[in-house]
C-alpha cells in the first residue's frame, strides 16, 4: 500500500480518509477496501521515513485534520518504484511443497491433494466469475484486475495438470 | 417414477487401433448425468475427454460398455437411428464448428429447430434470441466463410441450442474466443442452465468449468475426480478479493 499512497499524494495532498476513498473509487469492488487504521499506520511509517510530511489544518467545529503531502525523497522513492520492473509470478509455491513432500512421508496421497486443490481453484474461479458479473461494465480497472486474477488461476490449474501428468 | 438420467454410461471403453497397436482412449467410464445438471469434463490432452463426449453423441462408436440416453440404450443403435436421436435430443458443439457452408448464419441456426418440428416463427424467434445473446445479430445474413473463427464458434453454439435439446454436448466451446466473447458464452450457458438445460462439456477453460455444478476429471482414460463445486459461502477462506490482493 505504501506506493499507492505515495502515488496518490504525488497528485495532490490529502488526508487519510480521502486516500481511502480514492483507493476504493479507483479499484472498485475487485480490491479489498483498505482499512482506515492500516492507512494511518502506513502514513505514519512513510512520515517517519521522510517520504511524506503532515500539516495540521484547522476545521471549524471539528478537530484539526492532518493533511499529508509528498516530500522530495518521497518523489524519488515513487520514481524508483515506477521505473523498476515489477516482481514476476511466484516460483515457490506452498502447494507444490506439499505435493512433493507429503507422499514421501506417507501423510497424503498425491492424487487426493491435486484433486482437492483443483476444486479449490475452481471455487475461487467461480467467485471471480460472480464478482465480474456484479462489477459495472464501465469499471475497466476492476474488470482488468479480475481478469488478471482469472488468468493467474488458469495458469495454476494448467500447472496442476502438468503435475498430475508428470509426477511419478 | 423419477426421471431417468439424461446420460448413463456403464464401463464405457474406447480403444483405437494405431497401425495394429491398440491404444486405449477411454478405459471403463461410469458416468451418470441427471436432468438439468451441468457437468464439465477436464483433464490433460490425450486423457480421453473428447473421445468420451463424441461417444455420448454417437459420433464415435464405443468399443465396449453401454451408453443410455434418457433411459434408452443408445450404443447398440444403427447409425441412422443415432442421426435421428441427435436431431431430436442432442445439441453438439464441435471443436471445428461444422457449419453448413452454403447457408446463412440465420439458416444454420434455425435448421435444427425446424428439423425438430418447430414452427417457422418459433425457430426464428429462438434464433434471434440466441444470436442476440452471443452478440451476433448483425451477422445473421452472413455466410459462415465470412465469419472469424470466434464468430463461427458462437454460431455453432447457437445452432446446438436452437432445438432446445435434452442434452447439450460441447467440446471446448470457448477454445477460439477472446475474453469478451467468452463472457457472452458463459452468460448464455448460465441462462439456459437456469432454464433446465442439461449440459456436458469438455473444457480447458477454468472460467467455463467453474460454472458447472460438477467437475469430472479424466486422466489416462479414467475418471480420477468427480465432485460438486462448493459455493462461495461454504468456503471458509480464499475469497475472490483475497485472490486479487494476493496476485494483484
TrEMBL record, chain A:
Residues 5-78 form the Transcription regulator PadR N-terminal domain. Residues 91-167 form the Transcription regulator PadR C-terminal domain. Keywords: DNA-binding. It holds the Pfam family Vir_act_alpha_C. GO terms for molecular function: DNA binding. PANTHER family: NEGATIVE TRANSCRIPTION REGULATOR PADR, TRANSCRIPTIONAL REGULATOR YQJI. This is DNA-binding PadR family transcriptional regulator. It comes from Streptosporangium saharense.
Automatic annotation (TrEMBL), chain B:
SMART domains: AAA. Keywords: ATP-binding, Nucleotide-binding, Transport. One of its GO terms (cellular component) is plasma membrane. Pfam families: ABC_tran. The keyword Signal does not apply. It comes from Streptosporangium saharense. This is Putative ABC transport system ATP-binding protein. The keyword Acetylation does not apply. InterPro entries: AAA+_ATPase, ABC_transporter-like_ATP-bd, ABC_transporter-like_CS, ABC_transpr_LolD-like, MacB-like_ATP-bd, P-loop_NTPase. Residues 7-245 form the ABC transporter domain. One of its GO terms (molecular function) is ATP hydrolysis activity. PANTHER family: ABC TRANSPORTER ABCH.1, IMPORT ATP-BINDING PROTEIN. It comes from the Bacteria.
Amino acid at each position: 500500500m505504501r506506493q499507492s499512497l505515495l502515488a496518490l499524494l504525488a497528485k495532490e495532498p490529502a488526508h487519510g480518509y480521502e486516500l481511502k476513498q480514492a483507493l476504493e473509487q479507483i479499484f472498485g469492488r475487485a480490491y479489498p477496501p483498505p482499512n482506515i487504521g492500516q492507512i494511518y499506520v502506513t502514513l505514519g511509517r512513510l512520515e517517519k521515513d521522510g517520504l511524506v510530511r503532515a500539516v495540521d489544518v484547522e476545521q471549524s467545529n471539528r478537530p484539526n485534520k492532518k493533511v499529508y503531502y509528498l516530500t522530495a525523497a518521497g518523489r524519488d522513492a515513487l520514481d524508483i518504484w515506477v521505473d523498476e520492473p515489477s516482481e514476476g509470478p511466484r516460483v515457490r509455491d506452498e502447494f507444490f511443497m506439499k505435493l512433493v513432500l507429503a507422499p514421501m512421508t506417507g501423510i497424503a496421497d498425491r492424487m487426493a491433494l491435486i484433486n482437492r486443490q483443483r476444486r479449490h481453484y475452481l471455487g475461487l474461479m467461480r467467485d471471480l466469475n460472480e464478482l465480474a458479473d456484479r462489477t459495472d461494465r464501465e469499471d475497466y480497472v476492476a474488470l482488468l484486475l479480475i481478469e488478471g486474477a482469472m488468468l493467474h488461476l488458469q495458469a495454476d490449474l494448467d500447472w496442476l495438470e502438468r503435475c498430475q501428468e508428470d509426477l511419478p | 417414477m423419477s426421471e431417468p438420467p439424461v446420460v448413463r454410461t456403464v464401463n464405457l471403453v474406447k480403444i483405437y487401433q494405431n497401425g495394429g497397436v491398440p491404444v486405449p482412449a477411454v478405459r471403463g467410464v461410469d458416468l451418470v448425468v441427471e436432468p438439468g445438471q451441468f457437468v464439465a469434463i477436464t483433464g490433460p490432452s490425450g486423457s480421453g475427454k473428447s473421445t468420451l463426449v463424441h461417444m455420448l453423441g454417437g459420433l464415435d462408436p464405443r468399443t465396449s460398455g453401454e451408453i443410455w440416453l434418457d433411459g434408452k440404450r443408445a450404443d447398440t443403435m444403427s447409425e441412422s437411428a443415432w442421426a435421428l436421436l441427435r436431431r431430436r435430443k442432442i445439441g453438439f458443439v464441435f471443436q471445428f464448428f461444422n457449419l453448413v457452408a452454403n447457408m446463412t448464419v440465420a439458416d444454420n441456426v434455425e435448421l435444427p429447430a425446424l428439423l425438430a418440428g418447430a414452427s417457422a416463427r418459433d425457430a426464428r424467434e429462438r434464433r434471434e434470441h440466441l444470436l442476440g445473446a452471443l452478440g451476433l445479430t448483425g451477422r445473421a445474413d452472413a455466410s459462415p466463410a465470412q465469419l472469424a473463427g470466434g464468430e463461427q464458434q458462437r454460431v455453432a453454439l447457437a445452432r446446438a441450442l436452437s432445438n432446445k435439446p435434452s442434452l447439450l454436448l460441447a467440446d471446448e466451446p470457448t477454445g477460439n474466443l477472446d475474453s469478451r466473447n467468452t463472457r457472452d458464452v458463459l452468460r448464455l450457458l448460465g441462462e439456459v442452465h437456469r432454464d433446465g438445460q442439461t449440459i456436458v462439456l469438455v473444457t480447458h477453460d477454468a472460467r467455463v468449468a467453474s460454472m458447472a455444478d460438477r467437475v469430472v476429471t479424466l486422466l489416462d482414460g479414467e475418471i480420477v475426480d468427480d465432485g460438486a463445486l462448493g459455493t462461495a459461502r461454504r468456503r471458509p477462506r480464499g475469497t475472490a478479493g483475497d485472490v486479487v490482493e494476493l496476485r494483484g
